[in-house]
């Protein structure tokens, strides 16, 4: 909220938010929700992260980000609390909570005209979807600056993740230049995009079944060939091997794979690993250091994010959330 000259926050109510999606989608959403809270003069409760998506990561905000730094670094802009004041918390626990998804790609006037009156009426409002709920363009420069400040300063990873990230970068640097390849060729990407080029018939059927198994994924019937023709599919591992050669990337450079498990495993990675023998991953560089991070995909993604920022070259194979956020962050640093 706005700080008055007396140093007291003007508070119009409380905003709770539940982020949805993977780490970088949630990261972008947190930037948006801090901005919304600031412009509505409401108190933001530390965002809740998605635990029910495909990744099923049980991590809380404090497991990934330095929550105290997040709150302190933004205190001149917006009031952020770890939880609701006791009286309101009790009301919420008793089931008195208005919950809703905001309209996608809205500008700030939507939040002023539609959301703020509800916060004033109910005292607490819960936004249960946060992906792309604030427009990217056509917003006042102050809003864009605050989004950047949240993303590139306030959202600092926990000291444990930062330390592990530094160790990975140090190991890579000792062995010369390294390229980070955000190889977005995991099962969820292929299932939800419908891109099955290079997959066997059995794999294509498995990916289709998975897409139908997730009720929140609206697009069910997908023509893989048409999608690929429109340029909407991620590059395959075989294609990225050709791209690296075309870019004249030295075959002895380390190629760090920033991704989860590649669909099709070694069979699909063969062209890349034969062209570039020094393909590495966080799991191979720090086999024992990652045991606490296993089954915590967002914490693993945070490590990949840190390594991506420090790399000599960053190459995404798909123009998704991580590609956009990392590219912006690399320009700042």
Nutshell version of this structure?
It is built from 15 helices and 9 strands. The protein is of the alpha/beta class. A 5-stranded parallel sheet has the order 3-2-1-5-4, covered by helices on one side. Strands 8-7-6-9 form a 4-stranded parallel sheet.
What structural category do the secondary elements indicate?
alpha/beta
Largest sheet: 5 strands, parallel
Taken from the alpha-carbon principal axes, the silhouette is globular
Q: What is the percent of helical residues?
A: 40-55%
Oligomer: single chain
Q: N- to C-terminal separation?
A: 29 Å
- The radius of gyration is 21 Å
The arrangement of helices and strands along the chain is EHEHHEHEHEHHEHHHHEHEHHEH
| Total domains | 2
Beta-sheet strand percentage?
5-15%
How many strand units?
A: 9
Instruction: Note poorly predicted spans.
Output: 1-7
Please characterize this protein's 3D structure.
The protein is 48% helix and 9% strand. With 333 residues, it is an alpha/beta fold. The protein folds into 2 domains: 141 residues; 126 residues, no CATH class. β7, α12 and β8 form a beta-alpha-beta unit. α1 crosses α6. The radius of gyration is 21 Å and the shape is globular. The relative contact order is 0.15. The N terminus is likely disordered. Pathway: Glycan metabolism. One of its GO terms (biological process) is fucose metabolic process. This is O-fucosyltransferase family protein. Its main location: membrane.
